[in-house]
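**Protein of interest**
===
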Amino acid sequence: MGRQRRDRRDDAQASEDPDALQPGTWPIATGEVELRPDDLSPGAWTVLVNGVPSSHVDPSRPELLDFEYMRWMAAMLRTHVSAHLDPTSLRVLHLGGGACSMARWVHWQWPQARQVVVELDARLVELVRGWFDLPRAPLLRVRAGEAREVTESLTESTREVVIRDVFAGSVTPEPLTTVEFARQVDRVLAPGGLYLLNVGDTRDLKGARAEAAALREVFEHVAAVADPAMLKGRRYGNVVLVASHAPLPAAASPEAAAMERELLIDPVPAQHKDASWVRAFVGTVQPRRDPTP
């Protein structure tokens, strides 16, 4: 399919029919969402919120994860489920959903998983439901709400996996980065559960260090995945942090070796760093905490 030129009239027509899968922009509660075709992947779409790419979806290929950090998360999640969890009874909580790219992948990988996606913007949720054929309840529920409030409302030990991918602009809201919030996630996780976090950070990696420090205060095991340039402080980008009370792959273990092979052949090759590396990475950095009442 060739790239088609479009003008302001085309955008206006798209905006009048928000359920149509076509290029356009629409107002949402938190600003504006744009649906843009991916010229490099026919049939795929990028969803931008306030000009920032939020999700990438190919309606016919839920297994396709275009954002590298999601592929890194997928590698960690497959490894952990294989080692510690029952794939036929997974309960997954997504904090931040966008167009539900990760939830669609989880459904493709483990069709029996029960998932809840929490998205702050109710209008965005409506639009995404109209654009893309998402799994229906009870396999996937999309809930409008604030991530921390929803997490605090959940019953303890009711999720095997929690995935946090929440941003306001380029940063995660601070209430979702504190020791106290990590404890809330820990409370919600069932034994053997896994907490995956997408941390957007600058070259100094202060944010990733503070978040890793918070996780180490709550969870027995913490690991990290990122590309070498990010870990060396050469650019802005993403660090995936992983936390659990169940053992995570240790350096040089067969599990780590298998996962690292997958990470290294990724289009954006990444490195897996185990708990000992994370401990040194944090050093003397203090975690963030909720403000004292």
